[in-house]
Amino acid sequence: MLTKLKFLTAGESHGKALVGIIQGLPAGLEISKEYINNHLARRQLGYGRGARMKIESDSVKIISGVRLGKTIGSPISIMIENKDYQNWKDRMSTEPSNKEINKITLPRPGHADLAGINKYDFDDIRNVIERSSARETAMRVALGAICMKFLEDVNISIQSRVSRIGDVVDKTLLSLKDYSKLNQKVDNTKFRCFDLSLDKNMTDVIDNCKKRGDTVGGDIEVVALGLPYGLGSYIQWDKKLNSIIGSLILSINAFKSLTIGSKNNLFGSQYHDEISWEENEYKRLSNSAGGIEGGMSNTLPLLLNMTMKPISTLSSPLQSVDIKTKETKSAHKERSDTCAVPAASIICEHMLSFALVDLLLDKFGGDSMKQFKTHYKASAKF
Ligand code: EPS
Predict the structure, then answer these.
(1) pLDDT tens figures, 264-280
(2) Does any ligand 1 atom lie closer than 6 A to the CB of residue 338?
(3) What domains appear along the chain, each with residue ranges and CATH number?
(4) Measured from the CB, is residue 350 less than 6 Å from ligand 1?
């Protein structure tokens, strides 16, 4: 449902590399591989991740679309090499092989395995595992980082926090000031959780899960600040800001729900955000709508809450059936994460960045950053 931007990712989890292309960004946006790498490093953090993050130090190669540190309007293509490929060369060879390669035949409940082999007529679940792995989200963050730079240049910021791991909930309600410095506060902490006193309980949840061979999910809050009136539209279903954001966020691996604004929607009189006129501008007495009314941004902070289910690869596996023999057996197990909720909060930020840049370009236009900024300055309303 993006209309100005197009982006694609490719690459298997243990293949040679992840590859990404984004098209539609204006010329003249300053971007560097160091800037993108800083965003990638944030996705690699968080307590509860598996050994893979110790192998990889995700770093991008810019192949095209950028010249002398600035975008030139052509498709931007980038690549992240998988260091772990060195350990998978035979199993992940793109050439036919005479070597004996073990097939994976025990689908993991909750993963793409069972539906995937039936859909594509595979007899080896490895073919499904490789692309359905959340490894692919590294490329989404890398491409999204370029959009983040665009947003930064027009004073729009996206921040996030983890608000639940398992049954440990951070109930802190954040003020506008808290939101504006959220990443500064939570980046480089163990869980990206605002209330640092919950670190011990969250650590215990993950350590206990790991001991049991289990996994655990959680909740994430993402906020965007500095949006003008009117990103998105009420005129058609696919133009609504909420539907565009929904399709991007719910495409993230293991994401099961998204709420925009308040969940407390029993009575209209309590829910809706009353309007006042102060100091020559409209103000709101609350923000239950989470910054979206009628499918459009209304200048208030965009507030998103999402739930990530527990990861489906368990080291004490659940019941499954061998796809070859039809015997009841334990599901396949392999290295994975106990919890990836902190990393997922970074992925959410970057998925949101595609939606916001697309809608900014849709509303204000421009083939160069200079044109875009001129249009934005002249007509954006706050
Ligand atoms: C991931 C890399 C993967 C997993 C995780 C995400 O590495 P590996 O499979 O080599 O251990 O840690 O993938 C999953 C959670 C999944 O369900 O596939 C990454 O780079 O984020």
Answers:
(1) 878 999 999 999 999 99
(2) no
(3) 6-96+104-379 (3.60.150.10)
(4) no
